[in-house]
Each structure stands twice: as C-alpha cells, then as structure tokens.
Write a structure and sequence with these properties.
It comes from Parahalioglobus pacificus. InterPro entries: PRX5-like, Redoxin, Thioredoxin-like_sf, Thioredoxin_domain. It is an enzyme of class 1 (oxidoreductase). There is one protein chain. The strands form three sheets. A five-stranded mixed beta sheet has the order 5-4-3-8-9. The mean pLDDT is about 95. It is built from five helices and nine strands, in the order ββαβαβαβαββββα. It is α/β, with parallel strands linked by helices.
Length: about 160
C-alpha cells in the first residue's frame, strides 16, 4: 500500500557516498526535525531523469531552500557509487544523492516499479514528496511517463 499524506515515513537505512565510501544514513537522520523535499527517479543516468528531473532541482535548489527546506534529496534504486557519479555529472552539490540500492525504502513506501519488462529490474516510481519532521505533508506520484507533478517547479509551488 502506498504511503499517504499525514503518515510517517517508514524507518529504513540507505546509503550515501561519504569520504570513505558508501555510508549508512537512516530515515531519522534524513527527516527528523527537518523539512525535506525528496524526489525519486526510476534510474540514475536515464534520459528523463538526467535531462529534466534532476536538473530542475539543481537549478532551483537555492529557491527551494529559501522557501524553508532544509534538504533536497534525490533517491533512486541504484548503488551509492552510481548516485555519487550521477550527482557529480549533474553538478548536484546542493542535493543529497540517496541510494536505495535494494529498494527497501521504495518498497516500504509502496512506490516500487516493476521494470523487468525493460531489463531494469525493480525500481522506484517517479515521485516527489515533502516531509516535515518525518511526516509526509505532500506526495505527488507521476501517473505515467514524463516529469510533471514531481518536478521542482510543481513542488516549489507547494512550499
């Protein structure tokens, strides 16, 4: 079942790239006491994700943070090495590149995508949410291909 507005994000541990390599980060560390915009993509380096979704957040990061957001998080069911390389390739210095390598958080949110028909395995649906102190205040899931309801511009209008 998909997480709903008003619910707390499930407890989970994922990875980010640290100075010494992949480092654990918990949902509590990401969300407790913070206002966070998290957006998820089906895969790093894929066309829509690289040409539209992540770049929208990169160019609007300052505006989003001025609106009271503590962190912007980009999540994919990829490993920390891929997320780190993708973030560097996209100049995403202001964005936490979150690796949900096994898809555990994605599954706990109920937002998994079966991409096996395309040779992609199990991934995340494209979505964005605003989380305030661990509780979802907005959730926008793309109904199909493209970047619309989960874009940086759409989420900025909700802040």
């Amino acid at each position: 079942m998909t997480i709903q507005v008003g619910e707390n994000v499930p407890a989970c541990t994922m990875k980010v790239m640290g100075d010494q390599g992949p480092t654990d980060i918990t949902t509590d560390e990401l969300f407790a006491g913070k206002k966070v915009v998290l957006f998820a993509v089906p895969g790093a380096f894929t066309p829509g994700c690289s040409m539209t979704h992540l770049p929208g957040y990169v160019v609007n990061a300052d505006k989003i943070k001025v609106a009271g957001v503590d962190s912007i998080v980009c999540m994919a069911v990829n490993d920390a090495f891929v997320m780190d390389a993708w973030g560097k390739a996209q100049n995403a210095e202001e964005i936490i590149m979150l690796a949900d390598g096994n898809g555990e958080f994605t599954t706990a949110l109920g937002l998994e995508l079966d991409g096996t028909g395309f040779g992609l395995g199990h991934r995340s649906q494209r979505f964005a949410m605003i989380v305030e102190d661990g509780k979802v205040s907005h959730l926008n899931v793309e109904p199909g291909p493209g970047v619309d309801v989960s874009s940086a511009e759409t989420m900025m209008a909700l802040l």
